[in-house]
Amino acid sequence: MKAAVFYRPNEPLAIDDVDLADPKPQEVTVRVAAAGVCHSDLHMIDGLIPCPSPCVLGHEGAGVVEKVGEGVTYTQPGDHVILSFIPSCGQCPYCIAGRPNLCTAGNRAATRGTLLDGTTRLSKDGKPVYHLTCTACFAPYAVLPESSLVKIRQDMPLDRAALIGCGVMTGVGAVINTAKVQPGSSVAVIGCGGVGLNVVQGAALTGAAQIIAIDINDYKLELAQQFGATHALNSANEDALSAVRNLSPGGVDYAFEVIGRPETMRQAFDLIRRGGLAVVVGLAPAGAEVSLPAGVFLQEKTITGSSYGGTRPRIDMPKLVDLYLLGRLKLDELISRVYPLEGINDAFEAMRRGEVARSIVSFA
Ligand code: PAD
Ligand code: ZN
């Protein structure tokens, strides 16, 4: 089959023929319907975050179960599923504590690019090809661990469902699971791309009273207002700190960094009030550090990261599906463009130029 393969940073992905073996025990083959284009993959293409090579990218997807390996009990052929980009072993202290997004074996496999047993089902000319985050969904078929699948209602359109697999879950989850934003609060969101727009809509869902969208691209700020932002600040033209202090004296209750830059992570910390919470969602380049003003620790501010929106995928994702089908979660508005697999590099260029909320690759 054709797949989008990463060989080296700072090069376009290759649309190459790769082989996909049958699922082993506890694994499943999924026919991918659609895959969203997320900035995390672009960080790897840009060489900011390490990526095993060669590797089929794509970690935001949904599709239909085609085949199940021995011992699979959760799912059967024909099921509609969202692909979760962190599998879970179900047995480590994180999984037992209800934090499968931090699963030791799942995170190890996801970054190493293998399935949970340390091997790959993808290959080319008999040599292993890695599966980004056990999903590798920039391809018409994927083999995943059973624990990477989340069954969903059959009446949910699969292209919309794909977005829940990363951007929507990460953004809404950062608000609901990580920050637990309270109704009536003030929230600043720095970076309103595919994930940041979902932080904005997550904040709107929780009933935040003031949602201040910050970006350097006016188109993203317009989108943020459609997604529920009450204020929009272009930080290329005005100083975000003083503008936010004017709107919310003393600082906001919660600030979210959704870009992946140390400067804006620091900005999130500066924007919160005494006792406030800053949440870092963006992935920083490998080795980057953030410095914090030591004098303000007595202000009891908190800064934390949010991995995959702190999700328990099989609990949260079907709820997001229900909210979409009730008309309470915006997904249609996120899909700015639809590309065939061969257009994948154009989709990343459009993201780099800031032209899209999200693009999807469709295999329909
Ligand atoms: P995107 O490219 O769609 O959005 C990034 C946004 O940031 C764009 O709207 C930019 O205009 C804006 N921006 C860039 N620089 C600045 C700046 N200096 N000040 C203000 N705004 C700026 O990316 P995305 O939404 O797909 O991903 C955002 C980040 O989230 C990225 O680092 C990605 O790797 C990370 C991510 N994290 C997780 C997780 O589990 N924590 C999951 C998915 C994505
Ligand atoms: Zn992503």
Walk me through what this model shows.
The protein is α/β, with parallel strands linked by helices. The protein folds into two domains: 2-152 and 331-362, Medium-chain alcohol dehydrogenases, catalytic domain (Quinone Oxidoreductase, Chain A, domain 1, Alpha-Beta Complex), CATH 3.90.180.10; 171-307, Rossmann fold (3-Layer(aba) Sandwich). It contains ten helices and 20 strands. The strands form four sheets. Strands 4, 6, 7, 11, 12, 19 and 20 form a seven-stranded mixed beta sheet that branches. A six-stranded parallel beta sheet has the order 15-14-13-16-17-18, sandwiched between helices. The model has no long low-confidence stretch (mean pLDDT 98).
CATH class of the largest domain: Alpha Beta
- Unreliable sequence segments: none
Query: Biggest sheet, open or closed, and with what strands and sense?
Result: 7 strands, mixed
Using only CA atoms, what is the Rg?
20 Å
Number of DSSP helical runs: 10
Distance between the termini: 15 Å
Mean pLDDT: 98
Ligands bound here?
A: 5-beta-D-ribofuranosylpicolinamide adenine-dinucleotide, zinc ion
Fold-level CATH name of the largest domain: Quinone Oxidoreductase, Chain A, domain 1
* CATH structural architecture of the largest domain: Alpha-Beta Complex
Q: What is the name of the CATH superfamily of the largest domain? A: Medium-chain alcohol dehydrogenases, catalytic domain
What is the general shape?
Answer: globular
Number of spatially distinct domains: 2
Provide the β-strand percentage band: 25-35%
Backbone structural class: alpha/beta
SS elements, strand count: 20
SSE pattern, N- to C-terminal: EEEEHEEEHHEEEEEHEHEHEHEHEEHEHE
Helix percent reads 25-40%
